[in-house]
Amino acid sequence: MRLRAMAKINLGLDVIRRREDGYHEVRMIMQTIRMYDTLDIRRKRTPGIALSVNLPYIPCDERNLVYKAAKLLMDEFQIKEGVSIKLTKSIPVAAGMAGGSADAAAAFVGINRLFRLGLTEEELMKRAVGTGADVPYCIMRGTALAEGIGEKLSQLPPLPDCYVLIGKPGVSVSTKMAYENLKLDQIKRHPDIDGMIRDIQKGDLYSMTEKMENVFEPGIIERYPVIRKIKDFMKEKGALGAMMSGSGPTVFGIFDDMEKIHAAAEALKKTGLAKTVFAARIYNRNGGTKDE
Predict the structure, then answer these.
(1) Cα–Cα distance between 149 and 162 in angstroms, integer?
(2) DSSP summary character for residue 156
(3) 231 carries an active-site annotation
(4) Quick check: is 134 catalytic?
(5) Per-residue pLDDT reduced to its tens digit, 41-97
(6) Which entry of 14, 37, 103, 134 is annotated as an active-site residue?
(7) Which of 37, 70, 181, 283 is the most exposed place for a label (fewest CB within 10 A)?
(8) How far is CA 70 from CA 66, 119, 121, 157, in A?
(9) Which residues on adjacent β-strands are paired with residue 244?
């Protein structure tokens, strides 16, 4: 069985407060894009999980979220057979695009199907919370509002069809570092998440892109000015809006025209500002199958 683990971007990201348990409460608008890792999953007679990854620096044991997700379901349902999983990474690592969470989500879906466990999407999402806050969303996919620590999800209407240009500079930012750089008491303006939701409900892509904001941006851009350069470049080349995704450092730009995005992608490659440049369509739940 081959599954596609699709990346996400944050169209809007706000951090409300730090909770007593150390977690942060957030309000985010998430969007799946057609940029993906692949998971090839096979049953094997011998027990256990054999995981291989195409990148040598990614662990193939319990430290990997794919391994954790598979083990969680296999332990719960006392599956005696084993699985062989080959993970092929294309989503940049430590990029604010939920690559690891998307891989775990694909493992949950794959194990459920392969062993005919019969779990619904909602039942899978409940189990997925334990492996990471973004994993339930990566099972659900599409356009959604995420609240709480990211686990409270509300499906939103699909965005009008549009294109996303990805530009990741040659730096990595951990979520831990992003939160350490975030000074909640110094945030002067919070993203208008409710206004963005209204725009999405009306199908107004242009008004929504004008409101895109990420509270992590100022602190991360201060450390890595190349992020602002990529943002400005995308806007110069016709992006309706451009923003850092998640905790960064990946920048995405929203385009309404295929020719413009391809021209912008080629131009961005030539600047050398971004190590990874990728143009993709958005993914909507009502368009195509879950594995597309």
Answers:
(1) 28
(2) -
(3) no
(4) yes
(5) 999 999 999 999 999 999 999 999 999 999 999 999 999 999 999 999 999 988 889
(6) 134
(7) 181
(8) 6, 14, 16, 31
(9) 251
